[in-house]
From TrEMBL:
The lineage of its organism: Bacteria, Pseudomonadati, Pseudomonadota, Gammaproteobacteria, Alteromonadales. InterPro entries: ROF, Rof-like_sf, Rof/RNase_P-like. SUPFAM superfamilies: Rof/RNase P subunit-like (SSF101744). This is Transcriptional antiterminator. It comes from the Bacteria.
Length: 86
């Protein structure tokens, strides 16, 4: 079973989805994905995915694979932040 996220970290994901924030996510494998945070969903293995919409597609990223979350370029300055998830 995959590691569970700390509730405080999960809150960041919920907040960016509620705000439809523009974010860049860096995975533990070093991949970067950017887009508008859209939703948190369960996949068939019941793992949570952060759904990002960009100009070409919807992207699903396992929350437990996120190493860094950067909310940026949002109109309200307080909605921009960077957290490293360990």
């Amino acid at each position: 079973m995959s590691k569970q996220l700390d509730c405080n970290v999960h809150d960041y994901f919920e907040i960016i989805c509620i705000r439809k924030s523009w974010v860049t996510v860096t995975t533990k494998a070093g991949e970067n994905f950017s887009g508008e945070a859209h939703d948190i969903a369960l996949n068939s293995a019941k793992q949570e995915l952060l759904m990002l919409k960009n100009t070409t597609a919807e992207i699903g990223i396992l929350l437990t694979e996120v190493a860094r979350l950067h909310a940026h370029d949002n109109a309200i300055a307080q909605h921009n932040f960077l957290i490293n998830i360990t």
